[in-house]
Design brief:
165 residues; mainly alpha; 2% strand; 2 strands
């Protein structure tokens, strides 16, 4: 698990009172493959949106491309390193996530095998992961995270509060 901004290793949690989420560990929104869930993931965005059309579109895409029928109001995700029971099912099954957890690394760029063939196949399917991994390698994780988190906080400021308790 990644440390919180102050260096602690707290378990992430979502506090859903009044329909808002509070992330105890904002790093839970960083996938091992380099995707920032809060800025790069359509499912996360739809799950946290008040836009019914956005939710409907994602649900239709899931049915069309994966054969998964889901009520748009049932879209839920708290990030790739968030609580397992609040994680999107594809992320729960992700081989990269499983591998990184077994390796004990917070992100693939810290793996001794980086970049591996499995990661290369996965990020080839992603619009954002390759650039994110390049930026993480170039800027360092902390600086990259701070920049992505600024975008995230602006985008979701009305929905998710990442302040420490």
């Amino acid at each position: 698990m990644l440390p919180t901004e102050d260096g602690r290793h707290d378990e992430p949690r979502a506090d859903n009172k009044k329909g808002e989420n509070q992330l105890k560990n904002p790093f839970q929104l960083v996938a091992y493959c380099g995707i920032h869930c809060g800025t790069d993931c359509e499912v996360f965005e739809a799950a946290h949106s008040d836009n019914v059309e956005s939710k409907r579109r994602i649900a239709e895409d899931l049915e069309k491309h994966l054969g998964i029928s889901i009520d748009p109001s049932e879209l839920r995700c708290e990030g790739c390193q968030g609580p397992l029971e609040q994680m999107w099912f594809e992320c729960r099954l992700c081989f990269i996530r499983r591998c990184a957890k077994e390796q004990g690394i917070p992100i693939c760029t810290e793996c001794e095998h980086y970049p591996c063939p499995v990661l290369n196949v996965r990020i080839a399917e992603s619009e954002n992961a390759p650039k994110n991994l390049e930026d993480i390698h170039r800027l360092g994780f902390q600086r990259w995270f701070q920049e992505k988190n600024k975008i995230f906080r602006t985008k979701y400021r009305h929905r998710i509060d990442t302040k420490k308790e």
